[in-house]
Hints:
By secondary structure, the protein is mainly alpha-helical. 74% of the residues lie in helices and 0% in strands. The protein contains 19 helices and no strands. It has helices at residues 2-26, 34-37, 49-60, 64-72, 79-103, 110-118, 120-153, 164-182, 189-214, 235-242, 251-259, 269-296, 309-318, 321-354, 361-384, 388-402, 404-417, 423-442, 451-477. It is globular. The N and C termini lie far apart (53 Å).
Amino acid sequence: MITFLVGLxxxxxxxLTYSKYVEKQFEPDDRPTPAYAINxxxxxxxxxxxxxxxxxxxSIAGMxxxxxxxxxxxxxxxxxxxxxxxxxxxxxxxxxxxxxxxMRNNGMQVTGLIQKYLGKSWYYIFFGIIAxxxxxxxxxxxxxxxxxxxxxFFNVSDFxxxxxxxxxxxxxxxxxxxxxxxxxIDKIIGNLYPVLGLILIIGTLLxxxxxxxxxxxxxxxxxTHLNMHPKKLYLIPIFFMTISCGLLSGFHSTQSTIxxxxxxxxxxxxxxxxxxxxxxSFIAMVWAAASMTVYSLNIVPEKFIxxxxxxQIITEHFVPSYLxxxxxxxxxxxxxxxxxxxxRALRLTLSDAFKIKQTKVAGRFxxxxxxxxxxxxxxxxxxxxxxxxxxxxxYFMFVNQLIVLPTFFYATIYLYRNKKNYFITxxxxxxxxxxxxxxxxxxxxGFNLSYTLSSIIALILVGISMFWLSKKLxxxxx
Length: 478
């Protein structure tokens, strides 16, 4: 258990120290935030720090810190160190930089920031990628949350679209998404998320209490044998693709820019953006420990190891049946709330791109109608394929980690312009050029090249990225 406790210590001490160093590079001050400067009563609305924290946490903490972790812990106890280190040095820095730079640019969304700092070519490429990713998030999380609700609360075993119960549940979730994205952020999200956030925290703590009652069986790290994956999958890049939301997730940048429009004071940024990423990492650590323990007991059927059905088995092992429903509700809440704010982010992105004002309901309907038609179409396509979810999830993992690159790069340019330590974003960005390119070059869903050749090409692309960025930074200094 020492490795696990060391990981928690890294997470705690890292937040107390490194987060303040990162905050110092941005120098939050008393300038009016977009919540006051552009208060429109819909998306630009001042909310309290606690509300912003809960909205941010529930927005970024989809199924990733649970589903990703029950897969990623198969690599062994190295996960207990990589999760907190990745969070402190990369994930939380990414989320904080995205939120602060957005606040300094009138609440501009990620695509707008890409265009401003990286140029139109990057904008045209990533506008489509980010839009597709946000649609995939909504579709995947309608799918996962809907099926969890159906199986746990309605004893459904047939999850096809021919089952009316499935249709009703999916319909209810999509209807909620529509209403939530239509109303101002303080009406539904601002009032509902603090309650749901409390359920999430209670659910996580119940699992922690289960650690003390049932005990945990955690392996210690062996530095001579770091990768313990039973299928011999490569630690780099697969681990960093699998455990994304607890370590680093590009999707988070689209959520930080939503909250950038509701933060009252810049100095709240560290508590909202950086701290909530650390809380998500803590959730990931808890589920990593729970998963490792239950896997060691051989009570999870082999076909369910690393899959969604394992979540219920893990929950029921650590939490009494009369309380387990709280944990299940918390797990169901995660994908619903993330899908919700994903579509909200897509609406804001499209409204900025096409200059459609959102102060009136008609403007929101104009964007939401085609967006929700796309969600329904993609959901039908995914459900019609036998392995639709697995395929979409694999591509989502890659796209999710791909969009960390523009955020790290425009943050690097921003810090360089302001004569601050731009290496805090440059180095993680270059690392993920290597990880992302290695994955897509080597993966069967990508180019299916050999690992060695993929590594060489990925390193060349890192060099090209360094050359391009150096030219960009030199140009910024003129």
